[in-house]
Amino acid sequence: MEKNKNERLILITNPGSSSRKYALYKGTELLCSLHFEFEGKGIVCTLKKADGSAKKIKADFKSLSSCVANLEEILTAEGYLGGVSKLDAILARTAAPGEYFSQDHLVDEACLKELEIAKKKAPLHIPVVAGEIEHFVSSFKGTPIITISDSGFHNSRPELMKYYAFDTEVADKYDIKRWGFHGLSVGSIVHYMESQEILPQKLIVCHVGSGSSVTAVFEGNSHDTTMGYTPLEGVMMSTRTGSMDVAAALAIKRNLKIRSDEALEKYLNKKCGLLGVSGVSDDMREILKLRDEGDKKGTFAHALYVYKLQAAIGQMAASLGGVDAIVFTATIGERSDEIRRVVTQKLAYLGFALDAEKNVDEMHERHTNIAAEGSKPVWVIRTDEFEEMIRRAGEILDRHD
Predict the structure, then answer these.
(1) Strand partners, 10
(2) Which residues of 234-268 are buried (b: 16+ CB within 10 A; e: fewer)?
(3) Which residues are within 8 A (CB) of 126 and not within 5 positions of it... i.e. 6 or more apart?
(4) In sequence order, what are the residues at sequence separation of 6 or more whose Cβ sits closer than 8 angstroms to the Cβ of residue 284?
(5) I need a labelling partner for 74 at 20 to 30 A (CA). Which of 2, 13, 296, 315 fits?
(6) Cα separation of 54 and 85, whole Å?
(7) Residues 88, 150, 224, 337: which is the catalytic one?
(8) Residue 150 known to be catalytic
(9) Is pLDDT at 102 greater than 70 in this prediction?
(10) Which strands, in side-by-side order, build the sheet including 42-49?
(11) Nearest in space to 338 (alpha carbons), one of 393, 287, 270
(12) What are the CA-CA distances from residue 205 to residues 103, 277, 278, 368 (Å)?
């Protein structure tokens, strides 16, 4: 008997380089989420229930790669799995370059082979999620596993926005294009705005978190975005450089005596951005504190970060031929009134101004317009990548059933 789609038990994995995130859904209803991260010398799991309450679970393993192997035991101990409970699907957020992973896929032998190929293309981003998927394949035999593309939302962009300025035949042959990422976040924003009937024709979405990107949306579809072949391209981020001259990157490699291309890529992704410029921290809260204390490097890191965002917003406005509204989302975009304030200061030429009383640190509603009277809308909207993954997976599971 086919299970009602609202009864489907779905596990989501969204692994990062320094943490592991999971969520368990029944249909579209969140049951719980788990966040594993280092605390001191060990790993701690924070379990959040649907009612917002949270508890910490001390893990007796030492590496993040061990989280997935202990996940079923934790969920069973907490009463979410076991007995008659059986997973109906497992979803894995996948950020990988290439045409294949710009689509969602049921994991099969062909998909596993593509993951092996992707590991070589993106050695920093793919091995972690590939390891999670391989564990689920062996531990949850018969359960559909679906890779949900983080670049899929950007497939609607005009071809012009997908290419770099080199031989297009080479680009097509070797899959070297601007795939774009944060598509799940931007897709979540667009679908939420559609549901609230507040989606304009020309929209700019600023996903500002540990990783950051700025996306131009035209009539609900991705039109242009700052990230490219990998999530390294675009604006300055917490530990990533953002866009830079390849020759400058090679100069870094020579002068710092970095021995391999992979090591250089790791340096540009892990040791730069706010961390590299400030020399101290990749946390915007710490950077703002340094700025307020008069620290020169912290002040410069903050100013450079803001400038890069403002420039990218201008770029996306030019790509759209104008803009009707702007959205701030993700960790910094949703929580930092100061970043929203300073970024918007130079956007008057696009018709944007903030109301200081509305631009408060923590927003209690899913969406809030913080624009001043007479300004175009400036929205702060809480993104929900898991919700978007559930929506996307539903279409595949309906066909699979």
Answers:
(1) 25, 89
(2) bbbbbbbbbeeeeeebeebbeeeebeeeeebbebb
(3) 96, 115, 118, 119
(4) 238, 274, 305, 332, 336, 339
(5) 2
(6) 22
(7) 150
(8) yes
(9) yes
(10) 54-58, 42-49, 29-39, 19-26, 9-13, 89-94, 145-149, 105-106
(11) 287
(12) 22, 25, 26, 14
Q: Is 152 left (phi over 0), alpha (psi -120 to 50) or beta?
A: alpha
Average pLDDT rounded to a whole number, residues 228-239: 97
Q: Does the pTM exceed 0.70?
A: yes
Structure tokens at 68: 């997935």
Task: Determine whether domain 200-384 maps to CATH 3.40.50.720.
Answer: no
Instruction: Look up the CATH architecture of domain 5-149.
Output: 2-Layer Sandwich (3.30)
Q: Does 109 score more than 90 pLDDT?
A: yes
Banded pLDDT at 1 (limits 50, 70, 90): very low
